[in-house]
Structures are given as C-alpha cells and as structure tokens.
Amino acid sequence: MKTVELGRTGEHVSQLALGCMLMGTRTDEADSFRMLDRFTGLGGTFLDTADCYAWWLRRDSHGGESEELLGRWLARSGRRDEVFLATKGSAKMTDPGSLWGAGDEPDWEAARTRFEGAGAETLRRAIDDSLRRLGTDHVDLYYVHVDDRTTPLEETLEALAGIVQAGKARYIGWSNVRTWRLERIRQLCAAHGWPTPVALQQQHSYLRRRPGLPDVSIVDDDQLDYLDTHDDLTLVAYSPLLKGVYDDPAKRNGHHIMRPYEGPDTVARLAVLNQVAAEVGAAPGQVVLAWLLRHSPTVAPLIGPRTPEQLEAALPALDVKLSDEQLARLDAAGA
To answer: Which tens digit of pLDDT belongs to each residue from 214-234?
Structure first.
C-alpha cells in the first residue's frame, strides 16, 4: 500500500485510511477485528476514530464504542507501534439522551447545537478519556472534530499545544472548518509558537458540491486552492464513496448525501466516471478512489466500511491504473 507524507512532518502514513466509526456498534467485534487485521496486513497504517462514535446508533449511548473496540484490538494485536492512530474531540453530545423522540433517529437539528465544543477543559478531559478507552498513552493525530466558534481560538490552540507538550498527541488536525478559519488558526499558531494543524479532515469525493451552500464540511474550490498552496497540510477525505451511490444508481435517488451535489455538473461527471470505469474494468467507486489516490494536492481517502465485504470491494482501487488521458478526462468533466 502506498504511503504519503503527512504535511511536512516527515511522518509517512498509508495513503488509504481506515475509518472505524461503525466499529463497536453497527459492526460487531468479530467483523471489526477482521477488517482491522486485513487492512493492517496489507500495509495499512492510518486508523481514524473519534470520541463521539457512534452515539446516534443507540439510545443509551454517549459515544466511545469505536475507541473502546480499537483499544481491545490494539491490546490483542500488539500493533500499537505499527499504526498511525487518529482520534477527535469536541463533537460529543452534552445530553444525547434528550435528542431521542419516538422515532428511530435522533433530532439532528438539535444535535448540532449540543456539541461539547473545544474549550480548554473539555479538550483536556476528552483526550484523557480517549486515551483510556484506546488503552494507549498517546495518539498520533488529534483533531478538533467540529469547529467551535463560541470558544476563542486562542483558548483551544493553547490547550492543544499543552496536549502535544504533555506527549498525549503527536500532531493536531482540524475538521469541518471553513478556509478562512483555517488560515486564522495557522496565523495564531505561528504567532504563539503553537503546533500547527498538519491534517484537514473534510468530506471530499469526485462529485463537486453546488456553489453557495452553507455546508462547512465539504471541500470547495477555494479550499482546494488553499491546500494546493499549503503543502504542509494534508487533506484526509472522508466519505469519498458517498455511501456507495457511485455503484448503485438507484441509491442516488433521494439519498440525503446527494443533496449538495444534485444538478447537471453531477450528471456530466457521473457519465465520464462510468465511461472510464468501463474502460479499466473496475467499479465506478473503485475509480473514484483511484482518482483520489492520484490527486493533487495530496489526498488521503478515508473509507469507512461497515462490513468486511465492503472493505474487500474497495481494496481493488489500489491496483486500478488510470492513464494520464483518463485522469484528464475525469478532471475536466462537468457541466
């Protein structure tokens, strides 16, 4: 499996990252261990989780199931020193039980107002709780999971600097953040000598979101331009397969993940994607991953399979060969 440098840290990680969000809840322990063994056995090193995963899958959950499962796998496998372990803080719910009504889903609109946030005391407690669940004395990468505009950035960044200085995290990252905020974060870090984010985790795929949307989580052209001129920051692209919609046209109809992408640009890009997939004899989703693996600026696609079968369906992307002409067609496609 190919490796890439994380920012300009000198740290190399597997370019394909394994998202562990569903492990310990929707994915049982046996299947989770099977996927972790398979991924690391192929040379995968980059594992991603968060302290809030996955409270929304169970009414009595406060999150942490994914970290706990990873802790058990690390203890069983003895591979802590062989993996690059990332987790996140700031997105746990303050009172998740109150977000459930009579239905099968929590109230997501209310949930977006209940994040714990990135205050100093919250982050210091959160990293200690994550380390306890993971059964380790440090993580390699610690993200602010959701950008907290109610807490002064100076407070958050000073707390993160303390976490790094204490040896509880080696590097920091940010997720779900606008580009102007990211630049402000970097300026403050430079001014105060605090650790600067080396990873940006955002939703990014082959489809392009419609302009003018309020969504802060999906990469847009402005953010790509920023990343292209700041190579000390690596894009970790979550949901690159958009929940399987590339390989299942019926699933695209009415699926919530398609709402930011609906329109003629998506129609045009899907047409070219399907052409290239037919030419190379691969599934469209595999071509998307192969395209991201050849992306400039560098992208680390973060896949989050629910089952071992889904993991196996994604892995052939590592061997898909796209010609320069095919890459150019994929890049140029659009309305």
So the answer is: 889 999 999 999 999 999 999
As to burial, measured by CB atoms within 10 angstroms (0-12 exposed, 13-18 middle, 19+ buried), residue 66 is: buried
58, 62, 55: which is closest to 104 by C-alpha? 58
d(CA 268, CA 278): 16
The helix (run of H) or strand (run of E) holding residue 225 is helix 221-228
Q: Which two tokens stand for residue 184?
A: 């402000």
Within-domain flag for 23: yes
Tokens of 49: 């989780």
pLDDT at residue number 103: 84
Q: How far apart are CA 54 and CA 52, in angstroms?
A: 6
Residue 296 pLDDT: 85
Q: Is residue 28 part of a domain?
A: yes
- pTM for this entry: 0.96
Task: State the residue for tokens 């807490």.
Answer: 151
In three-state secondary structure terms, 68 is helix
Neighbours of 82 (CB within 10 A): 11
Tell me which amino acid residue 297 is: P
Mean pLDDT over 150-172 rounds to 98
Range of the domain at 99: 3-197
Looking at the structure of the chain, the number of domains it has is: 1
Which among 238, 244, 240, 242 is positioned nearest to 202, based on CA atoms?
Answer: 238
